[in-house]
TrEMBL record:
Residues 259-433 form the Tyr recombinase domain. The keyword Transcription does not apply. Keywords: Coiled coil, DNA recombination, DNA-binding. Pfam families: Phage_int_SAM_5, Phage_integrase. The lineage of its organism: Bacteria, Pseudomonadati, Bacteroidota, Cytophagia, Cytophagales. This is Tyrosine-type recombinase/integrase. InterPro entries: DNA_brk_join_enz (IPR011010), Integrase-like_cat_sf (IPR013762), Integrase_catalytic (IPR002104), Integrase_recombinase_N (IPR010998), SAM-like_dom (IPR025269), Tyrosine_recombinase_XerCD (IPR050090). It comes from Runella salmonicolor. The keyword Coiled coil applies. Belongs to the 'phage' integrase family. Residues 100-127 form a coiled coil.
Length: 438
């Protein structure tokens, strides 16, 4: 009715040649709108007895709601910024990087969400206070953020990191995706698909642990890993200010002690070399295992091995020169290792003309275990056994510890001494032979 009246009077005034200020005229019919503003402020870490702010460290960004001059208590945005990077006038972070643009979009979204909430509350309430707006805003976010949504947010972040060099490998991403599927399956089983993060408490975490053990027969390590993924997701949501706390921050994550891989003995190595199978796939796995036993390559290095690129000749001796994949972390690229090719490894290369069979990890592990059973090796076999066999073999053949360190690609000689100090019985006998004969 007011609008219709406004335009009726407006037309009348204009017809008399009088121009009316629209905002002034509207104030005749409307009550003055509440003064509303969202302001961002920085909080610096404090140090010393006087608790003076340390401006050299990143400051946390807080938001404050102002309604008619009354301020709310500051609430964190979950973001930090250096003093020199903050533009207090424009209320944004200076810079053009993807990370900065992402943070500025989040600040803008917080401001627009609060503004929309203030209008929504003003339409239904006579008096709206700044603190009430903040409390409703935080509460809505907490109730709105479900476990599945929090997981999706975190997966999106790790799939598209700001630093491309920190991107997870495909296998690691598969583990995260599988962990999300497990959580969703559990929530579906208890008919709580849209459970908010704040309601996923410790008792529910223990129920989730039992679910994994009962349905999938997971051990300590597997259940703890999936719970740690979930805890990380909740912790990131807390940092972003989407939940007040991590409800499973104190969840227990027991782990079983890792079993140290045992190297193959000289007799077991010879049985592996002599092994022959009619099944071509089984024989290829045996040959691949021999190559790893006499080069010390991990399975990932074996899969990346290319004879044309990685074999060089020094003083008429063929050498493998390549960078170990597991040493490449967060942009760090180590020096390549140099591994002289022993006769047993060269025989495998010659057999396949340098083009070694590429066999997936789970496939070769299953087949190597089958082979070890056939040649009467009773050890608990993993692919680490093959690499450890190489280092132990070299030491027992009299190769110096420093040389073994370089061949295996260890950062320090202490690692080599810790892992490869196993002495074969044959080595002991050879060392004492002159004493026994004498």
């Amino acid at each position: 009715m007011h609008e219709a009246l406004f335009w009726q009077f407006g037309t009348g005034f204009e017809s008399r040649g009088q121009i009316l200020n629209v905002s002034l005229f509207k104030s005749i019919f409307y009550e003055k709108r509440t003064m509303f503003d969202v302001h961002f402020q920085l909080r610096y870490p404090r140090r010393g007895k006087n608790k003076t702010p340390n401006y050299s460290l990143p400051a946390a960004i807080y938001f404050v709601v102002n309604v008619d001059g009354v301020l709310s208590t500051p609430r964190t945005t979950g973001m930090k910024v250096l003093k020199d990077d903050w533009d207090s006038t424009a209320q944004k972070i200076n810079g053009s990087s993807d990370e900065v643009q992402h943070k500025n979009r989040r600040l803008k979204r917080i401001k627009s969400d609060l503004d929309a909430l203030e209008q929504e509350l003003s339409a239904t309430m006579d008096v709206v206070t700044s603190q009430h707006i903040v409390d409703v805003y935080v509460g809505k976010k907490q109730k709105r953020l479900t476990v599945s949504k929090a997981f999706d947010n975190h997966l999106e972040t790790i799939r598209n990191p700001y630093d491309k060099e920190e991107a997870l490998k495909e296998k690691s991403m598969e583990k995260w995706d599988r962990s999300k599927e497990l959580v969703e399956e559990f929530l579906k089983s208890i008919k709580m698909e849209n459970l908010p993060v704040i309601h996923f408490t410790l008792p529910l975490a223990e129920k989730y642990r039992k679910f994994m053990v009962k349905k999938y027969k997971f051990g300590k390590d597997h259940t703890s890993r999936n719970l740690s993924y979930l805890r990380t997701v909740f912790q990131e949501a807390k940092k972003d200010g989407e939940v007040p706390n991590n409800p499973i921050y104190d969840v227990e994550l027991p782990r079983s002690r890792p079993k140290k891989p045992e190297p193959l003995t000289l007799l077991e190595l010879q049985r592996l070399i002599d092994f022959r199978a009619k099944d071509i796939w089984l024989q290829q796995s045996a040959d691949a295992a021999i190559f790893m036993c006499f080069t010390g390559l991990d399975h990932c290095d074996y899969m990346n091995f290319d004879a044309d690129r990685h074999i060089i000749t020094i003083d008429n001796v063929k050498i493998i020169r390549m960078v170990r994949q597991k040493m490449c972390r967060k942009g760090y690229r180590p020096e390549p290792v140099e591994i002289p090719i022993l006769p047993e490894a060269m025989a495998v290369l010659d057999k396949y003309n340098g083009y070694l069979p590429k066999i997936k990890y789970n496939t070769i592990l299953d087949q190597v275990r089958q082979i070890m059973s056939m040649i009467r090796v009773t050890k608990n076999i993993s692919m680490k056994n093959l690499r450890k066999t190489c280092g132990t073999y070299l030491l027992n053949k009299g190769v110096r510890m420093e040389v073994v360190r370089d061949v295996m690609g260890h950062e320090t000689i202490a690692i080599t001494e810790k892992i490869y100090t196993i002495v074969y019985p044959e080595t002991i006998i050879n060392e004492f032979r002159h004493l026994l004969i004498g």
